[in-house]
Design brief:
Blueprint: H1 2-16, H2 21-41, H3 50-75, H4 77-82, H5 90-93, H6 98-119, H7 121-126, H8 128-140, H9 147-166, H10 175-196, H11 200-206, H12 211-215, H13 217-242, H14 246-265, H15 270-295
Helix pairs in contact: 2-3, 2-9, 2-10, 2-15, 3-6, 3-8, 3-9, 8-9, 9-10, 10-13, 10-15, 13-14, 14-15
């Protein structure tokens, strides 16, 4: 029985790629830190249990990512079966059946909505928005090359969620969190273009839309670089709007190095650029925000 439970957990983690949460959690908690900064600057009462809020954020983020990945795998299962790179995924390979996949989707939705309800009324009110994005973006590759920006949006809402979890107020103080959200949107959109270069020929053959299938790999990577330049500009805008000091500026430059140098320089190695450099960059951005909050 215990072996069966372990096997089921491995199947679940494989299906939803739980490790991809490493991309989203750092910027979500960075959004929470910006909410804390706004509270302290405005002289508002600090919530009693920051650890409790952080735990509910973790559950909400895990539930949301589960919904996003499960929806994407369900929608793309027939396409994945045709692609040699993705044919080994759980649904097309038969490791998981469609009923089980929908079970994961429903469970993820339940965990996400329950966690949102435990945070505050604004989080619960806004909670359907990410769910709508998760349902729409998997279809975009069938219609537009801008599908990458749909993927980016699915993660970009996270920092705002982290902000509202601790400070459910919409006013001018939210501006730094808006900059973080927009940075995340362009950062993820740019690295999704890098990731999609692996499927350039397959996408062309199947009539799917992406920057590589439309412009070719070389040009697509150039566009990715430009998008990441705009992403860095938004991170710099966050620094100017909320932080000051040479130490914070130095951490901003480290983030720039990962985003504009390492990620673009290693773009030909998708596994390295997408899975390793991106994971490190997320934590670098988190450190940048935490340092800024503590020194502001």
């Amino acid at each position: 029985m215990e072996t069966g439970n372990v096997s089921s957990m491995k199947k679940y983690f494989s299906f939803v790629k739980i490790e991809h949460t490493l991309f989203s959690l750092p910027v979500i908690y960075a959004g929470m830190a910006l909410g804390y900064l706004a509270i302290t600057k405005n002289g508002e009462p600090i919530p009693d249990s920051l650890w409790k809020i952080g735990a509910w954020i973790l559950l909400a983020a895990t539930g949301a990512r589960t919904v996003g990945f499960a929806m994407n795998r369900i929608v793309d299962r027939h396409i994945d079966a045709k692609n040699p790179r993705t044919a080994i995924r759980d649904l097309p390979s038969g490791k998981m059946n469609l009923r089980q996949a929908y079970g994961v989707l429903i469970a993820g939705t339940a965990f996400y909505l329950f966690a949102a309800s435990q945070l505050n009324s604004l989080c619960l009110l806004l909670s359907p928005i990410p769910l709508a994005v998760f349902c729409i973006y998997p279809f975009l590759k069938r219609f537009t090359i801008f599908s990458h920006f749909g993927v980016g949006l699915s993660l970009a809402l996270g920092p705002l969620g982290g902000y509202f979890a601790i400070r459910p107020v919409i006013d001018i103080a939210i501006l730094p969190a808006i900059f973080l959200m927009l940075f995340t949107w362009l950062w993820v959109s740019g690295f999704d273009i890098i990731y999609s270069t692996s499927d350039e020929e397959f996408d062309k053959r199947e009539g799917l839309f992406s920057f590589p299938s439309r412009f070719g790999k070389k040009k697509a990577l150039q566009y990715s670089g430009v998008i990441h330049m705009f992403a860095f500009a938004l991170l710099a805008a966050l620094y100017l709007a909320a932080f000051y000091g040479s130490i914070v500026a130095a951490s901003l430059l480290i983030a720039a190095g990962f985003l504009l140098y390492f990620e673009q320089k290693k773009a030909d190695d998708v596994e390295l650029a997408f899975f390793k450099i991106n994971a490190v960059l997320g934590f670098v951005v988190f450190a940048f925000v935490i340092i800024g909050v503590n020194l502001s």
